Automatic annotation (TrEMBL):
Annotated organism of origin: Flavobacterium zubiriense
Protein name (database record): Addiction module component
Length: 77
């Protein structure tokens, strides 16, 4: 099956649901939207903007390795 995301005015919701209800459950399944989609979209766009405007902070593999070791040590107890 394929999935699409629809955005529509609330006034037409009943018409859309009426149309969709004409399909069998084998043909169509209504899946609830991920409530965090817009938040994730904003976060990703923010990161893209930082990369584009040159304010993104990058780390080397060595720096990431040190951070990972410190994080593991912190929770090993």
């Amino acid at each position: 099956m394929e999935a699409i995301r629809l955005e529509f005015k609330s006034e037409i919701k009943e018409k859309i649901l009426e149309l969709l209800s004409s399909f069998s459950s084998d043909e169509l399944k209504i899946v609830q939207d991920n409530s965090t989609f817009e938040e994730e979209k904003k976060m990703i766009q923010s990161r893209i903007n930082k990369i584009d405007n040159g304010t993104a902070v990058y780390s080397t593999f060595d720096e990431l390795d040190i951070l990972l070791d410190e994080t593991i040590s912190k929770y090993e107890g």
